[in-house]
Give the backbone structure.
Amino acid sequence: MSFFSKPTIIALVAIIAFFTFVNLSIQISPVVGSSMWPGLENGQVLIINKLAYLLSEPQRGDIIVFDPPDNIGNGNEFIKRVIGLPGETVRITNGIVYVEKANGDTIHLDEPYVKNNASYDFTGDPIKEGEYFVLGDNRINSLDSRSGWTVPEVNIVGKAWFSIWPISRLGGVPNYALATQ
């Protein structure tokens, strides 16, 4: 009996196909820094769903991993929360985030996960088609879209899905369908 028998070849192909699928669909990423505190902490390890936006678009409240603009990040991926969608304008007044939708309606976001609001005001430009405005949950310690950049959809690696480390944080990542008023 040869090592390369038909059952062996089928098993090898199945194993390679499985690992290829896993590699294309998920990624293990550590949280670096405190910009998403308290929901995510420095050193926490997450599973990122790289297929999350294959058939849908990022939604307000999703936590995403993305490649930042070339001039920042030292080659490291960022993790932030989607706040503004294409065609919208984001404004922050007294720590409250307001989003002017493409139809002209303005909403303010109820963000229960934010413990440290920014102490300054901000008014952004309209978000370009195919781009997203992101903020860190720790508003006083986050390099995010308030610096004048947005995230092109092509830069999004995936949606933060599940925390695997530390064990005390084992479970789903706190993505929110943000309540608006």
User: Anything to note?
Assistant: Residues 6-180 form a domain with the Umud Fragment, subunit A fold (CATH 2.10.109.10). The longest helix spans residues 6-25. The longest strand covers residues 156-165.
